[in-house]
Amino acid sequence: MTHRIAVLISGNGSNLQALIDAISAGQLRADITLVLSNRADAGGLARARQHGIATAVVDHRDYDSRAAFDQAMTEVLDQQGAPDTVILAGFMRILTPAFVQHHAGRLINIHPSLLPRYPGLNTHQRALDAGDTEHGCSIHFVTDELDGGPLIAQARIPILANDNATDLSKRVQASEHLLYPQVAAWRAEGRLRLTNDGVELDGQILPAQGYQWHRRDAAEQCPGADARQR
Ligand code: GAR
Predict the structure, then answer these.
(1) Measuring CA to CA, which of 70, 78, 155, 161 is 20 to 30 A from 99?
(2) Is the peptide bond before 158 cis (omega within 30 degrees of 0)?
(3) pLDDT digits (tens, 9 = 90+) for 29-69
(4) Which CATH number belongs to the domain containing residue 21 in this structure?
């Protein structure tokens, strides 16, 4: 059966677009069965609709507590049977332990820093302020700790002399758009899972930093990936 992915967003949805494009290109053999947003004005919802993907809005402001909001999301997500993977792609709400437990081992997040450095917000400015020479993005299984779950993969980019936060954000996002479809493909191909010993890819436990990904990996997996505009 085709691997079923649900994507949770709060905004623009450029990572969602990267997943949609990877499916169209045959790089990712999966169905996005639902795009769920906590904001009705999230740009990513239009991207989903354009591709005939089902969408849902669960607005956190309609609920008295995080628990009630998360429960409502879980009900929507599980309506047609639980998805095989739940992908957080710019989803900007903190999830409750109950939500994380319910989707444990299937819940994946992308974060714009080289975790464990810079969990939380303003990651690009924080990397600049610290005088770092490299930055990047991380994809991890979600646990109760904010931006703290076991790392699956990281893409590293150099910080150049005159970079500002906007420059960095663009280059980090470009790396996200290559890395997230790759990780989703590992899931869809049954190659990636969370075990008690850590993150397992192709039967091997990955090092604590996760798979260290290079741009050439994308060129091999998906020729032309760099050229796509989002
Ligand atoms: C991405 O850069 C993602 O790493 C970040 O939000 C952006 C969403 O962009 N996520 C977080 O900061 C989560 N802590 P998109 O909506 O264009 O995919």
Answers:
(1) 155
(2) no
(3) 999 999 999 999 999 999 999 999 999 999 999 999 999 99
(4) 3.40.50.170
